[in-house]
Structure formats: C-alpha cells, structure tokens
Amino acid sequence: MKQNSVNGKRAGISWLFRMAWRDGRAGLRRLALFMSSIVLGIGALVSIQNFGNTLEDTIAGQSRELMGADFLIDSDRPANEVVQQLMDSLGGPASREVSFLSMALFPGKEGSKLIRVRALEGEYPLYGKLVSRPLAASAAYQGEGRALVDATLMVQFGLQPGDSIKIGNKVFPVGGSLLEAPGNTVVSTSVAPAVWIPLRDLEATGLVQTGSRLEYAYYFRAREGQDLERLYDQLDPLLDAEEADMDLHTDTSQRLGRRFENVGRFLKLVAFIALLLGCLGIASSVQLYMKEKRAFVAILKCLGASRRQTFFIFLIQVTAIGLAGGILGSVLGLLLQEVFSGVAADFLPVELAWAIHWGPVLTGMGLGVVMAVLFGLLPLLSSWLVSPLSVLRIGQPDPVLSRWLTGAVLVVVAAGIWAVAAGLLQDPLRALWFVAATMAAFLVLGGMAWGGMRLIRRYFPHSWGYEARQALLNLFRPNNQTLVLVVAIGIGTFLISTLYFTQDMLLARARLEDNTPSANLILLDVQAGQQEGVAGIMRPMGLPLVENIPIVTMRLHQISGRNVDDLRRDSTSTINGWILNHEFRVTYRDTLIASERLVAGEWVPRFVETTGPIPISLSDNVARDAQVGVGDTLVFNVQGVLMDTRVASIREVDWGRLQLNFSVVFPTGVLEAAPRFHVMTTDAPEEAVSARFQQELVRAYPNVSVLDIRQLLGVVGDLLQKLSWVIRFMAFFSILTGFIVLLGAVRTSRFQRIRESVLLRTLGASSRQLLKITALEYCFLGAIGSLMGVLLALAGTQLLAYGLFEVSFVPSAIPFLVVFPLISLAVLGIGLLNSRAVLRSPPLEVLRREGV
Amino acid sequence: MSKILNVDRLRKSYSSGGNDLTVLEGISFAVPSGTTFAIVGPSGSGKTTLLGLCAGLDTPDSGTVEVCGQDLGSLTEDQRAALRNEKVGFIFQNFQLLPTLTALENVSVPLELQGFRGAGETARTLLQKVGLADRTHHYPSQLSGGEQQRVALARAFANRPEILFADEPTGNLDGHTGQRVVDLLFDLNQEAGTTLVIVTHDMELARRCDRILRLQGGRMLEPEEPSKP
C-alpha cells in the first residue's frame, strides 16, 4: 500500500468544512444558544472600545478647540521679567487670563454662589467656539465691561441680560449667558460655574490681595509650521525655573484621554468578566456536545477518517460559533455605545460623533473566535481519543485526556486569557493581577459549590419527601452541569452584590468622618484681620465656629543644606521636581487630627526655644519626594523671611477624607506673626440659614469664598450615581450571560430530563409531582448559586473594608432580601419555562417527538 | 486462492475491576478472497471483539492480523483508518448512520474521504440499487429500521471494499425485514465479488456462508463447512 493512501489525507480542507456544515446545520438552534452566551460579553467590550476610540479621535481632532489656543504658559504668580522676555520672544500672548474662585452676589436677588472668575484680555478663545445668548454678547463683553455668566447659573438665579452680578467690590452688568466655551463640561462647571469678565476690570473688584489664589494664563497662537514639541523642550526647563509651566494643546487632550482611559479600563474588565462567564458556558456546552458526538466521531473513524480530520470538523464548528458570536456581539456593541455616549455627555467637553471603528469590531470578532476555541479546546481534544471501536456493541469508557495534556491545555487557556486581558488593558502586569484575581474568584466560587455539593451528599436529607430528595439528587445526575451553573449564577450575583456592599462601605466611611466635628461650610481666604468679623456674622445666626485654621504660604529654600536653586540645576538630583517649585500652604497647631497618624519621630506641639531649628512635621509623601527623614533640616522662605526647620516627625495622612489636610505642619509659637489667612468652617444645619449666612458674609467680606459641602456632595453624589449606573449596567450583562448559560444548560440537558420524566411517568408519577421535582431542582440551583455569590461578595467587601479602608460596616440587606431571591426566582422561571413541553406532554408523545 | 484475512494466535483481554478478563485466546484462521465467512457463538463468546480486531478497530494483546496483505500491528491508528477507508466496508447491528447527515450524504462519506469527485452520483446509484432512490434526502431518524440498514448497505459498498465486516446485520430488524436485508447483502456481495465476514448468532444466516467459525468462551472450535440450504 502506498504511504500516502494510508495517511487518509485525500479528502481536502473543503470536505472538512462541508462535514462541519452538514453536521452543524441540524443543530443550528442549539449551536446558536452556545453562541449567545458570548454575544453579550463581546457586545459590552466592543461598545466600550468603540466608544473609547470615538472619544480619542474626537479629542485628538479638537485639541486646539479644547484649549482654545496652540499652547499656553501658566503660573500661580504674575509673569516676572524672565517669563515676560520669553513670551515676548514668542511674539507675545494673543490673550491673557487671571482666574480664581470667588463668591458672587446678585443685586436684587437672594443668594450668593461660589464661582470661577475668568478675567480675560484679548481674543480668547483663539480656536473653538464661544457661544453666548445673545450671540453678540461674547464679542462685546470686553469692550462694554460686561460679564458673561454660565448658562446654568443664569437659570438658577433667574438672571437676564442687563441684570447685575457683584464680584468683590465691583458690580458688572450681565452681558449674556455663556452656553459653550472651550474645555467646559456640565461637571466641571457645576461646583463653581464660570463668569467671564474683562481683565482690565479685575483690579476694581479688589480681590487681588495676599492669600488670593490667582492663576495666570497666557494663550498663544503658533507660527505657521512651528515645531511645538521642540519649542516645549526648549522653553519648559526655563519656565520651570521661574515657577511657570508650558502646556501644548496636545497635552490637554492627552490628559483628558487618560482620565477616560482609566474609567474605560475598569469598564472593559467588568465586560471581560461577562465574556469569561460566557466562555464557561461555551466550555460546558462544548463538553456536552462532544459527549453526544462520540458516536459520530467513532463512525467517521471507522469509515476511515483520521483523528486530525474528525478533530478539525468540530474545531471548525466551534470556530464558526465563535465568529458568529463575535459578529453579533460587535453589532450589539455598536448599538450599545449610544448608552455610554448618553451617560458620558455630562463629563465631556466635546460633542461626540458616533462612528464605527474597525479596530474594536475586528477585535470583537477575533475575541469571539479565540475565546470559543480556547474554552472549547479541552472537550474538542477528547475527540482525538474516541476509539472507532465504540461503533460496536462493546461499552467504551469515556476518553480521558492525560493529566499533563489537560494541564498543558489549561496553561494555554490561562495564557490566552492573560494575553487578551493584556491587550485590552495595554498593561501586561495589571492583566496578570486581573487574571489571577478572576481565577481566584472563579476558583473560590467553584470550590464553594463543590464543597457545598459534597456536604449535601454527605449529609443527605433522607427524611425529606420524595420530590425534594429526587430534585436534590438530580443535581448529581451524570453529565450534570451543576458546578458551571452555580459558578455562572454566583459570579453574576457576586458582581451585583459587591456593588451594594461597596456602597455600604463608602457610606460607613462617610459616617466615620461624621464623628469628628462636622462642618458643611468651608470659608476660604479669610484674612487675619477678618476673623473676628466673620465670627460676628456666625454668632447671631447660631452657627458654631467649628474650626479656624491659619494658613501661611511658603516655599522651600534649602533641603538638607543644599539650595533649591542648585538642586534644580543638578541633573543628578533625584528629588522630585514639584517639591522644589511648590508653594506650600502650611498650618500650625499643637495636636494631630483624626486623619493623621504619626509614623516616625516625635510630635512637638509647641516651640518655646528662642534658638535652633524649628521642629516641624511632614506628611510621608512629602518626606519621600524630598528625600528627607527625621532629623534632616529644611529652610523655608516665608514671604521673604528664611526659617530654619528640622523634621521632627513624619505623619501618614489620609488624603481621601473630605477634610483640610496639610503636608507641612509647624508647632505653635512660630508663625503667629507671619502674614497669613484663615480657613474657617461652620455647620449650617438648614439650607435657608446657610444661604442667608453666605449672602451676608459675601456682602461684608467679598474676598472670602465659601465652599458649600452640602452642594458639593450633591454634585459628587450625582456623578457617582451615573458611574454606578454604568457599572450596574455592565454587571447586569454578567447576570444576563449567566442566565443564557443556564438556558443553554437546561436545553442541552433536555434529552436527559425527558428520559427521566418519561421513566418517572411510566412508573406512575403525576404531572404535579414532576413539576414539583423540576421546580425544586431549579430552586436549589438558583439558591445555592446566588447565596454563594452574595456571601463571597460580603467576604470580599469585608476584607477590603478591614484591610484597605479600615472601617467596619453593617452590610445592607438588599443583596440578601432582593438580589438573592430575585435571582433564585429568575433561575426557577427560566428552568420551568424551558421544561413546559417535557412536563405537559404524555410520555409516548414526548418519546416520539424527541426521538428518544 | 489468496487469503485476504489472516489471523494468527490472537489474544485479547480486558481489565475489569482490577482483574484481567481474557476474551479471546489462541484464535487463528484465514479467509480466502471472495468467500463468505461467518463467526458464530453464544453471547459473550468474543465474536464482536474478534470482528473489531480483524477490522483494525482495536489492537490485540498478542498475535497478528493481516488484512489485504497488510499487518495491522505495523500501522498507526490513522493508517489503519485509511486502510479501512480503501479496502474495508462495515455493516452494524445498530446501523450506525451519521444522524445529522442525509441518506445520500451518509453513503457519500467513504468516497469523499478518498477525495473521489463523483461521490454524490455513485451514492445515488447505490441507493437506487437498495431501493431507496426516493429517500436520498431523508435523515436517518426519518427512515425505518430496514431502510436505515439498506442505507448502511449502500454505504458499505460505496468504496468498493475488498472485505466487508457485518456485525449482527439483522439483530435489530424483524424477521421479514431482516431476510430482505440479508438477501440484498448477499446479492450485492456476489455482484461486487467482496469477501464477507459476518458475526451472528443466527445459524440460518451463518449457514448461507462458505465457512463458519464457532467461538465459545473466547476459544475457537474447529471451523466447519456449512451444509448450504
């Protein structure tokens, strides 16, 4: 016999495809069900990626419009001579801006409001739109000395063009409402809406004084063909030395892109979990499918097909399922991205143009194929081992892959998941953590399910009625998919419950802060001489002075004996650059506060000596970045006066708390005479009192700004609600995928269930008993899965709470009272709906129809 | 006459519950080309195991099987598959049609595996021969047992095999249908000049063969020439 004829290679690839189609077409509906388990996960991923690409393109394409210029130079002090010269060498700025936070009053109206004043000169924005109502107001406000007021603020206070707005000591006529400006978003303007005024009127407001936190910006138009990157490389070091900074229009868009990238990354991971869950469904379905195809494989082998040929027939089928899932998922994803556009609109300074990006679509299709093949690989390989002898009557044991092959395939699967995650995150290390954590969650759930089932078997409730016992036993029937189903239901429940518990934990954290003297109004920029007056307004209204924190601004002059100027020039210095240029806002007090913990050295409450360096306390991040420890010396320049200090202690500061924290704290007895301003806090329990107090305060002290925490929390709460909506939406995908996996499992085990039902019926079981058995089986399945999900979520969140956030919290009952029963009910519903035919029909009819 | 099937000192055992169970021991016989050969014996005598070994579906513990001059022990599993595809045909008690393929496709498969271009046409002719010209696009589940076995017959002869193994071909059929199928099997076999090896416990059927091999408890009794009816 010729060698080539015994290799069985003469049937070509086209025959493999033909056989895959012939065999697949009969079970199209069933294959479609396999496929649908990955559609949602892919859909979610494609929608996020496509949305991300659209956003990236839009931002990159509109970066000039976002900044309103080609580049800008900004600083927190007016341009000095060097900076001025540098700017002159660039042809001078096309526009200048001074911006700061301040309070505004509206003569003739009730109330006051914290605003961002943008005092402008020149033709800003150089690019992009400045849209006002009336339209002409945006062009005329500078010439006519009017104010352009944020549109929402206009509505809030019922302002009309021609009304007045008082900023500091000056009253401006309102020119119009500002509808669109470069870089503005609903979110960015909700805390402090912008009011634009002419720069030449700034002086008249009287708000430029000590302690005022002013930001200076100079907007430039680039010359034709100018290489901005090179210009940046040349100028930025020079500007840095003068405590100024240069920003290119591309930097703005990159910063913005990065901010959304983080959110996108998180959402991608949640979507990826849904996809993984779907893949578990694929793995379990393919396993059952291949089990049923054993006879098919054996016959083919008997007729002369090689192992490779039979393997490829089913590989082609699984690949096709994956591809179809990928295509459908991508289409779904493109439709879904509208959802994200809607939610993101408030966060975005640009209007998005809906577009199809082929990258995400192709990724979606590729993911469908790769994930289906990866997860189908193990059961597919079993076809290799099917013996043609199975066609004879001899009972053949199930083909079992060797341990090393199973191990090798599992390694390939894990590596594949990691590669996909790394591709999605663009960060291999983080992807590794993600894969490890996900595997751990799946393993823990799988382990819990396995352990639970063992326990049930071990302590089987023999005393239960027949139906309940039979339902419980059904969970252990041969070819059962109990483990996969419990994991699928569990993961979905875990995600949803985690969201609820995390919310509880964050609330618990907020309550913890309530233990410290609470305040909901923070008064900024109170001058030393105004303290008494401000307290005088509080008292008659019954408002307590909760805190009065003095603040002195200073810069570093020397670090451990080396001049900051030298360090700036020293290219070998590894001290973090921001330390050298930063204007520190320093306070003095004799005690630690709740958000601080001493980690090194000794806390010195009061400085009584008249000589020697002043013992100060640094926050751990500043000590780290300045590369100093306890005992090292620092010299501060306090508005012209040099002060020798020594690091006496280092504190760990919880910056996450809504509280004023300081990186540098002096002991009392040193800075009391230095030029300073104060931050005072008070607690206004009623909104009306709060409004009246703010109005009176601003009238008396126009330079004082008020941060209304209640309002701020409202804005933050809104944002969180929107974000949590998106996350819940993604978690919902996981739940839905879990249901599809369940549906697949119910349908694939239909044949077996019918056999059991028919047998029971023949033995005399009534429809009622069959219904009870089926219902109880799904009840057990749903209850075990969802309960484990809730418990795992609870354990995970408690770990986070103790380990990371150091709070204890009482978990809300929602996951237990709502999520757990709802999911159990849904499982029951899906199970029963798909068993109707089995339960209703007489045995013989069922046998005939299903070809048993 | 040349021997198309040579079996020499065949031994096969299975381990069951930790014990070795010898199913076949010391089986040796040869089947001349173009003859019909029956393997008979009571249930559990090792008939089907012997058939599986002769067709290269399983491997013996010791001894050799030569099919068409090829020692099966020297071939890999895929090479044995290719040999079956080219030289061997099968008929099974349970018909063993591919349930997701139509009658025509089932008959075409052996030819398609050979890369034969006119597989469809040949299959159609064969189905016509077995009287199923109007059933070509039916799936196995849409055919009666007798019809399914006739499709299996057409498939068995599709690749013009040199030797055909039949495992209890009438075991799942009623007497009348079984008779029709057997008649058809012998007619087609005669027409094609194929060597036929039948495993059966039906002595009526066995007696239609040129030679009979009796098995009992895994050992062979003396081969005998049947007295043809």
TrEMBL record, chain A:
Query: What membrane topology is annotated for this entry?
Result: Multi-pass membrane protein
Q: Does the keyword Magnesium apply?
A: no
- Please verify whether the record's keywords include Membrane: yes
InterPro entries in the cross-refs:
ABC3_permease_C, MacB_PCD, Membrane_comp_ABC_pdt
Where, if anywhere, are coiled coils annotated? none
Q: Where in the cell is it found?
A: Cell membrane
TM segment ranges:
28-48, 269-290, 311-336, 356-381, 401-425, 431-450, 482-501, 725-746, 778-801, 813-833
Q: Which residues form the MacB-like periplasmic core domain?
A: 32-236
- Residue intervals of the ABC3 transporter permease C-terminal domain: 269-381, 729-843
The UniProt keyword set, sorted, is: Cell membrane, Membrane, Transmembrane, Transmembrane helix
Tell me the superkingdom of the source.
Bacteria
UniProt protein name? ABC transporter permease
TrEMBL record, chain B:
Q: Which SMART domains match?
A: AAA
Q: Which organism is it from?
A: Robiginitalea marina
The name this protein goes by in its record: ABC transporter ATP-binding protein
Can you give the residue ranges of the ABC transporter domain?
A: 5-228
**Keyword Transport tagged:** yes
Instruction: Drop me one GO molecular function for this one.
Output: ATP binding
Q: Which InterPro entries match?
A: AAA+_ATPase (IPR003593), ABC_transporter-like_ATP-bd (IPR003439), ABC_transporter-like_CS (IPR017871), ABC_transpr_LolD-like (IPR015854), MacB-like_ATP-bd (IPR017911), P-loop_NTPase (IPR027417)
Q: Which domain of life is it from?
A: Bacteria
What Pfam families has UniProt attached to this entry?
ABC_tran (PF00005)
Q: What keyword terms does UniProt attach to this protein?
A: ATP-binding, Nucleotide-binding, Transport
